[in-house]
Amino acid sequence: MNSKKTDIHVITALALMTALVFAGSYIQFYIPTGIDNTRLHLGNVMCLLAALLFGKTKGGLAAGLGSMIYDLTNPLYISTCWVTFIMKFAMAFICGWIVFPKNRESGVKLPPVRAVIGTVSGALSYVVLYLTKNYIENYLLLRMELEVVIAAMVTKGTVSLINAAISVPAALLLATALRPALRSSGFGNKIGMA
């Protein structure tokens, strides 16, 4: 019976984190690239926060699902929502894998060096995946001119790096504030917080 309660707590917490990723993706500014638009948004903050709270697998699921659901609400992104799931899952998975190696609990406080390295690695891995996706989509599949694709990728890369520069400290600050509160309330143990 106790495991059923734990499962309900975990599912509820992951659903809430998925909703936060989704909502964070809506707080955005569109920036034109010449081919299409790119966005400066807060979804990546929540993706990294998911990894810092839940670890690699559960954090990756919340990040991937929340971002994919956002894509399903926007006609521009529906066709590639599955790619978004993979990329956002990878971002959170890499972050969680570095911060919490071997599924080891870290306690109330985040391990500071691994937390910084993990969030930076997760954010930068997403930038690489995002730019690779755009190159494949625009140059290899749509056969756009290479110069146009590169110009758009420079803009998208710059915005993505700014997004990463905002996401890393914001996620670290939020996780540092939330982890002790979740642990002391007992909810952190019920949800299997990393």
Summed up:
The chain is mainly alpha-helical. It contains 7 helices and 2 strands, in the order H-E-E-H-H-H-H-H-H. The chain has helices at 2-26, 43-54, 56-72, 81-99, 112-141, 146-185, 187-190; strands spanning 28-32, 37-41.
Main features:
194 residues; single chain; 76% helix; 2 strands; two-stranded antiparallel ribbon; 5% strand; Arp2/3 complex 21 kDa subunit ARPC3; 7 helices; elongated; mainly alpha
Fold topology:
Blueprint: H1 2-26, E1 28-32, E2 37-41, H2 43-54, H3 56-72, H4 81-99, H5 112-141, H6 146-185, H7 187-190
Antiparallel strand pairs: 1-2
- Enumerate how many helices there are, as a single number: 7
Multimer state: single chain
Low-confidence stretches: none
The number of domains is 1
Q: Class by helix and strand content? A: mainly alpha
Rounded mean pLDDT score: 90
- Percent range of helical residues: over 70%
User: What is CATH's topology name?
Assistant: Arp2/3 complex 21 kDa subunit ARPC3
As a percent range, the share of strand residues is 5-15%
- CATH architecture designation: Orthogonal Bundle
Give a description of the structure.
With 194 residues, this protein is mainly α. The protein has a single domain (2-186), classed as Arp2/3 complex 21 kDa subunit ARPC3. It is elongated, with a radius of gyration of 17 Å. The protein has a two-stranded antiparallel sheet. Helix 2 packs antiparallel against helix 3. The chain has helices spanning 2-26, 43-54, 56-72, 81-99, 112-141, 146-185, 187-190; strands at 28-32, 37-41. 76% of the residues lie in helices and 5% in strands. The protein is built from 7 helices and 2 strands.
